[in-house]
Every structure is written in C-alpha cells, then in structure tokens.
TrEMBL record:
InterPro entries: SAM-dependent_MTases_sf. It holds the Pfam family Methyltransf_24. It comes from the Bacteria. This is Class I SAM-dependent methyltransferase.
C-alpha cells in the first residue's frame, strides 16, 4: 500500500476549477474520438460544427452533471469509502421504492411506506451501527444509510418469510438490515431466520450483538453452502460474486430449494441479466427498481426481483 499524499487544503481544486479538470479529461477523449482510421493510418475527422460550437455542446451537456461532479469532489475529500457505497435515497426515489415493493408483495403501498419509515426511524439500529463503528477508520463512513436495502427490509416485514438467505455478506449492511426486520417480525409473533454466506471469514462485522440472534453466517464458497442447504427458502438475495456466470449458478442451485411463493432478489440486476433470464426460464415475473442516491456521485444500483404472479387481496399476496 502506498503512503498517503499530504497536501494543504488550498491545493484542493475550488468549485470554479472542477469543470477545468473535467474538461481536460473530456478534451483528451474528444481528441481520440475525433480521429478515424484512413487507409490503416489515422487522419483527421472533420466535425459538422466549429470548435466553439463543440465547446458549447459539451458545456451544455456537462451542466446536467453539475451536482454529481460536486458530489464527486466532496466524496473524494471527505469520505473514507472505497467500495460498497452507502447513501440515502431521494424522497421521490423512496416513494418509487414503496410502490415497487407494493407490487412485488401485493401489500398496500401505505403499509410498505410505513415499513420504510420504520427502518429510517430505528434509533436502536443506528446506535448499534455507531457502537460497532466507534474507533474504526474506514472503509465505511459514519452513519447507517441503507439505500435500496430499505426495500429488502420492507419485503421481510410484509411477507414474514421463515427462511431468508443472502449470499455475500461483506461488512454486514444487508445482514443487519434483514436481521432488524426479522427481529421485529418475531416480536409480533412471526418466526423467521436469517442465513448469510460469505467466503471471507471476517465478513459480517455489523452482524453482532442482539442482531446476531436473527440467524447465522456460513463461511465458505456460497455455491458449496447453498448445495448443502436443505431448508425451503422463502426469500433469496444474491449479493456475492458479481459475475453473471456465478450469479446464474446460484440461481440454478437454489431453484429446487425455493418455497412455493418465494421471492428472489438480485443485487447485481443493474449490471447483468442473470435474474431476468432465470425469471423467464422458470415462468416468474421480473421487475427492477433503480436507485437514485441523494448527495452522492455514485449513480446507484438497484433491486431486481423474480416473483410469482398473485392477485391483489386486501391482506396482500394470497
């Protein structure tokens, strides 16, 4: 690991210089894109507008990314995240998420919205997160920001699944979120258990304390863990190796282990069609929710869901 580079705060580009940096990157790319092969050599490609018009076009398009660029510079200087980015969703995006979960569960939107607010207002969960993070430096920012996982939480609260399986635990954001939902369900008289899998024996730092009572984490290759798992799965969440082939292997392995009305969530559905193809092959419906992060440069991931068709009833799925 290289030593950190020390510099004064005055060395950080000001807002007025952010576009200069971006423009330098864009201009290098434009020069390459404006070259074309001519008789196995490179010659000039003449554009249908002047250099001034080109600058205007790029500047106009860049204006749509002003906020993201500002977020990028703030993240670069203030955040300690390196991956598994965390953020809140915009208010509109949260409303979209509530309607999305309502469709896939068959439960009223008002009920789902209440569950989303429930996790946002969960002081005990946030206190637990702060306690675990106390004294740690990286690779996570302070503050619990579940993002799309609010949808996971609402699905568990609505459907009361007996067995929830998540592949790919990492630091345990998903584990903690799902455990919180399961423990609330138990308090209301509904049994449920969480089973996570991860190849990293140190995964799941957030899945501890009272929340660890919700289930267990199986350490080892997820395909081997799933092959040995012999209980019916009511909710399956793929969030492990993000290659399309590995993702497909997981779906193939759990197909015969799914409960009759099981839901399958894909955390990689924004990047592959593995869950979509699984849905087609097995005769399930498929929907995708796209995140819109608030105050973050990352464009967001989402939730892919494979689910059976159910008529709407006053109490949700029949």
């Amino acid at each position: 690991m290289t030593d950190p580079v020390n510099f004064d705060a005055d060395d950080i580009p000001g807002v007025e210089n952010e576009h200069d940096i971006v423009w330098q990157i864009l201009s290098d790319k434009l020069r390459k894109d404006c070259a074309q092969a001519v008789d196995d050599d490179y010659g000039k490609k003449y554009l249908p507008f002047t250099a001034g018009q080109l600058v205007h076009r790029v500047t106009f398009a860049l204006s749509y990314y002003d906020q993201k660029i500002g977020n990028l510079f703030r993240w670069a200087t203030k955040s300690v995240e390196g991956d598994n980015y965390t953020y809140q969703l915009t208010e509109r995006n949260r409303r979209h998420l509530a309607h999305f979960v309502s469709v896939v569960t068959g439960h009223p939107e008002s009920e789902i919205s209440a569950y989303i607010e429930e996790i946002n207002d969960d002081g005990a969960l946030r206190a637990h997160f702060a306690t675990v993070m106390q004294g740690r430096q990286g690779p996570m920012d302070i503050g619990f920001h579940p993002g799309r996982r609010m949808g996971w939480y609402a699905i568990v609260r609505a459907l009361k699944p007996k067995i929830v399986v998540e592949t790919g635990v990492a630091r345990g954001h998903g584990s903690l979120t799902l455990a919180a939902a399961i423990l609330r369900n138990r308090a209301e008289g509904h049994a449920g258990r969480y089973v996570g899998t991860d190849i990293n024996p140190e995964a799941g730092m957030l899945f501890c304390g009272d929340y660890a009572q919700a289930g267990t984490i199986l350490y080892g290759d997820s395909l081997e863990s799933l092959w040995a798992f012999n209980e019916k799965i009511d909710l399956f969440i793929n969030d492990s190796d993000h290659s399309a082939s590995y993702e497909s292997e997981e779906y193939d392995l759990i197909e015969s282990k799914l409960a009759e009305n099981a839901l399958i969530l894909g955390d990689n559905a924004h990047a592959t069609d593995a869950l979509l193809e699984f849905s087609r092959r097995t005769g399930r419906n498929f929907l995708f929710f796209r995140e819109d992060p608030q105050g973050h440069w990352y464009p967001g991931a989402g939730i892919g869901v494979a689910f059976p068709a159910f008529p709407k009833t006053s109490s949700g799925r029949s």
